[in-house]
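User
Class, as today's exercise, I want you to study this protein, comparing sequence with C-alpha cells, and judge whether sequence predicts the C-alpha cells.
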Amino acid sequence: MRHQNSVFHQVLKQVPWAAFDRLVKEHGADARERGFKTKTQLLAMIYAQLCGAVSLRDIEARLGSQQARLYHLGMGPVRRSTLGEANAHRPVEVFAELFALLVSQASRSLRRKFDGLTYLIDSTALALNGLSARWARFSAGVCGAKVHVIYDPDADQPVYAAVSSANRNDITAAKAMPITAGATYVFDLGYYDFGWWNQLDGAGCRIVTRLKRNTPLREVEERPVPPGSNIVGDRIGYLPARLPGRRNPFVKKVREILVKIDTGKVLRILTNDLDAAAQEIADLYKRRWAIELFFRWVKQTLQITRFFGTSENAVRIQIATALITFLLLRLAQASQTALTSPLAFARLVSANLMERRDLRALAAPEQPIPINPNQLAFL
C-alpha cells in the first residue's frame, strides 16, 4: 500500500521551508537555543490553530499524544513552559516575514481576477486580559489589541497585517501601510483623513469611502441617476478648502454618490473616480462586507480570541501564526476541487489533522476495508 502522509503534513507542504530557515538565521532566532528550535515553535503554534487548543497545557497534551506521528516533520517535543518562553522572547519578525512570503505565494495562486486590484482596509479588535495592561491598556480595566488588515477580496486573503494596541487610531495605522499604485482602496469612516486620501490619489489609486454627514461638498456638476435603482444622487464637487488650523491638501474634484440602503438610510459615498458608473462605485463600497466576513471566520475558526501569552511579543506571534495558518488552509484548499467552502474545508482538516488521508479526498467518506467473502464463515 502506498504511504500516505498525515493531513497536517500535507498542509505544511505549502510552507517555504528554505526561506523560513533563512529568516531564522537572519534574525538569530536559534542562536542561543540548543533544543527547542524555531521550527518546532512554528509547527506547535500552527497545530494549536488547527486543532483548537485553548492553552499551553492543552497544546503540550495534544502534541504529546501524537508524538509518534510527528517525528517525520522534524518536530521535537514541546513543553508548555518552553513554548511560552519562546513566544515571549523569540523575534516576531521571523513569523511576520514568513507571513509576507506566504502572502506573495498565495496572491499568485488564488487571485480570480487580473483586471485590476481592489483592496479593502479595516481593523478588528481583540480582547486581552489585565496581564497585558503594560502595553495594551485601552481604558480602566479594559485591555485589547487591534489587527489592521489590507484584504484582497478577489483572492480571499489578507495581503498586509499589523498589530497595535487597541487605542491606536485606524488612520494612524493606515499611514504606515504600503500603497500599491493604481489599486482601488475601499475603506470606512475610521480612515477619514484628507491628507491620506490625497496621498492615495497621488499614487494613481481609486478611493471609495464615505463622507460624514457634516462634511460639505461644493457642487459644480449634477449627474443623472439611473431610474429604478438605489442610487438617489450623483454629483461632482470640491471638499472644504480649509481644515481646522490648516489648508486641505486634497483640492481635486471628487464625486459624491448617494445610495439608499434597505433600512432607508442614505449613505454618502465618496470617490475620486469621476467616470465609472455610479452603480459600480456603490457595488465596490458594498464589498467591504467581505473583510468583515474574513475577521469573523478567523475569530471563529482560529485561535486569536484566546491567547497563550500576555506579552506583546507573544500576542504578535500568535496573531502572525493564525494568519499564516489561514493562508496555508487557503493554499491547501486550492489544491483540491471537492470543497469550495473555506469553512467546511477547515473543519475537515481539523477533524482529520493527524489521519493519513489524501487532502484532496477529505470530502469523500473513508473506504471500508474490503472483506473476502470466503472469510465470512470465520467472522
About this structure: The CA atoms of residues 199 and 250 lie 9 Å apart. The first strand starts at residue 118 and ends at 128.
